[in-house]
Write a structure and sequence with these properties.
Number of helices: 11
Shape: globular
Order of helices and strands: HHHHHHHHEHEEHEEH
CATH superfamily of the largest domain: Glucose-6-phosphate isomerase like protein, domain 1
Strand content: 5-15%
Number of domains: 2
Structural class: alpha/beta
Distance between the termini: 51 Å
Radius of gyration: 20 Å
CATH topology of the largest domain: Rossmann fold
Length: 246
């Protein structure tokens, strides 16, 4: 079993930090294959001990040993004639999302959007794109009042509002807002998390979670937008149900 298969098979046992490192490797494999430990630590916001523990969890003596083997496995995979193209990877992500979405859950979500006083869509970095896209789609439904506020939004929510957050990995940008809800400084709306990380660190702060499938390292060594594609497909399926869910 190579390092790529080893990581993909160990995801369920990863800690929050391990998962963050894995997600970074999945998006930027070349940096982890060729960069220095210092460059990787600074670029990804990880400590050097965290990188060492990640490698040791996979059975390596340290990160440099893991990196050497990972670089070899990555190059070997790229030399294979049957390696999927980016278009094939993205197409596979879209198909998986479409197949695995629960129509019943989406219908219930649409009902909740229509019964809510206001629907707020939030996303940060690449997750901002799908949040803004769904906001645009919802403007065509007069029964739903939706908007895309800034992540550091200071307006007051009500318990009749619905907050939909797109967050692929860690949700660091939303920790301040979640803290406000926790200590009662801001009224908590009904909150839905749309993510590609079933073990998202903030998942316990939400009333409902929709975990979408995405590409893994073994099939996405040069694709950095797989999570965004998954979010956009979710939006497409949800928007397609709006006219019929009356």
């Amino acid at each position: 079993m190579n390092t790529i298969e080893l990581m993909d098979g160990s995801v369920s046992s990863f800690s929050k930090t391990d998962r963050a490192i894995y997600e970074a490797i999945r998006k930027f494999p070349d940096m982890f294959a060729t960069g220095s430990v210092t460059e990787i630590a600074n670029g990804g916001g990880f400590s050097k001990p965290a990188l060492t523990r990640f490698a040791q969890r996979l059975g390596f003596g340290g990160f440099v040993e893991f990196q050497y083997q990972f670089a070899q496995d990555l190059e070997e995979r790229r030399q294979r004639s049957d390696a999927p193209t980016n278009a094939e990877v993205y197409g596979g992500v879209l198909k998986l999302v479409e197949e695995r979405l629960d129509p019943g859950q989406l219908s219930s979500l649409i009902d909740r959007m229509r019964s809510s006083r206001h629907v707020y869509l939030m996303g940060y970095n690449l997750s901002r794109i799908p949040a803004e896209e769904l906001n645009i789609a919802l403007q065509f439904d007069p029964s739903i009042q939706a908007s895309y506020p800034q992540v550091d939004v200071s307006q007051r929510f009500t318990s009749d509002d619905l907050l939909i957050v797109y967050s692929a990995v860690s949700g660091d940008s939303f920790k301040g807002l979640m803290h406000e809800f926790k200590i009662g400084r801001n009224t908590k709306p009904y909150m839905l998390l749309v993510t590609t990380n079933s073990k998202h660190p903030l998942r316990h702060s939400f009333d409902e979670i929709i975990a979408l499938p995405t590409a893994n390292v073994a099939t996405s060594d040069r694709t950095v937008l797989a999570d965004t594609f998954a979010f956009l497909m979710f939006n497409d399926v949800l928007a397609s149900l709006l006219p019929t869910a009356r």
